[in-house]
């Protein structure tokens, strides 16, 4: 389970630029998803082998009459509440402002690591000007220039060193399914429909994180732990901004599950909020099942299901090998079909293929469809094996791995899916030097 780091500060200090700089400079170790509203992003980062989730909040403006800014303020306070560490960004060009002092007042009450980061420090004169930020009462600061990445390495070194060690959670051998989605999509109703009246088969397990409660489910031949992101919350945690909070809960639940049951509202469509949660799950390499709830409320004919599926698959390209189940929690239609599908996806995710079988099936295909020559170099793939990881990852050993382009890797992934069924599961393909 990784930590969550929140980036906070007033508007226009360069928070998003800093976030995007991490993505641009370290594409191999940072995955990011665009925010569901203006000026907000979610991502997963790795620095010096330490993983953490990154939240870029909107600009904090205390006491603003602007309705949107008031909502952003709630999100910032929530992000601070949920985060394990906070990066507080200020702007050396404008110096200490009243809004900076408001944020500092908020952060001085926080008993978590807080990193004061002075942005736009790209010369010696500005480094001297940064001294005034000591007045915020948050101790030492880091100087960076998010426009070119200067100083970010020192900041991240200190950040990962200060992140709290996560308590070791004894792994349960049972599959862990997380029910995620935007508010009012039917997550709680779906879980209640699964549990039904036979309460004796359900036992509550202490939450594996502060964000979710696991429920052991054993019914109709299925046994797994259900991670409920729609569970009862501490009153101090209840905020008005349910949209933002649903993503915060999803980040935690997704990281600690095997399969995500993404519940969406058929009447609202596969909108930005749902897409963000989908890509969070995909980038965390989790199994995914999309549940289109409230299908009974949609006017339809015999082509509606196929048309709706096409719309969703268009939005999730290129990862389109995902099961989509149309359900009605209210009428209990296809509820257990959803669980059957989740179990199938879990089995696909944990599937191990013998090396001999992999080579027997794929090498003839590769021989007939070799990687295209690149810069006059011809790549020869000699050997294939599945890596010993929790999710499907495959190494293709060849003479010139650096010359295999992304389209050919997708071709190899498609052949793996075609012959071995990895429906609902992200598959990783790596080229290795033979």
Secondary structure blueprint with pairings:
Layout (H helix, E strand, L loop, with lengths): L2 E6 L6 H11 L5 E4 L6 E7 L2 E7 L10 H16 L2 E7 L6 H11 L5 E6 L4 H6 L11 E3 L8 H11 L13 E5 L6 H9 L7 E7 L2 E8 L2 E7 L13 H14 L3 E7 L6 H12 L3 E7 L10 H12 L8 E3 L8 H15 L5 H14 L12 E6 L6 E6 L7 H15 L7 E6 L1
Parallel strand pairs: 1-4, 1-5, 5-6, 6-7, 8-11, 8-12, 12-13, 13-14, 16-17
Antiparallel strand pairs: 2-3, 3-4, 9-10, 10-11, 15-16
Helix pairs in contact: 7-8, 11-12
Major sheet = 7 strands, mixed
Low-confidence stretches: 24-39, 64-69, 197-211, 231-242
Envelope shape: globular
Q: Bin the helical content.
A: 25-40%
Number of DSSP helices? 12
Q: What is the strand content? A: 15-25%
Query: Which structural class do you get from the secondary structure elements?
Result: alpha/beta
* Overall pLDDT score: 79
* Main sheet strand line-up: 2-3-4-1-5-6-7
Question: First CA to last CA: what distance?
Answer: 34 Å
Let me know the number of strands: 17
Run of helices and strands: EHEEEHEHEHEHEHEEEHEHEHEHHEEHE
Instruction: Give Rg in angstroms.
Output: 24 Å
Observed structural traits:
7-stranded mixed β-sheet; alpha/beta; globular; 434 residues
Structure characterization notes:
With 434 residues, this protein is an alpha/beta fold. The protein has helices at residues 15-25, 67-82, 98-108, 124-129, 152-162, 187-195, 242-255, 272-283, 304-315, 335-349, 355-368, 406-420; strands spanning 3-8, 31-34, 41-47, 50-56, 85-91, 114-119, 141-143, 176-180, 203-209, 212-219, 222-228, 259-265, 287-293, 324-326, 381-386, 393-398, 428-433. It is 34% helix and 24% strand. A 7-stranded mixed sheet has the order 2-3-4-1-5-6-7, with helices on both faces. The longest helix has 16 residues, at 67-82. It starts with a strand and ends with a strand.
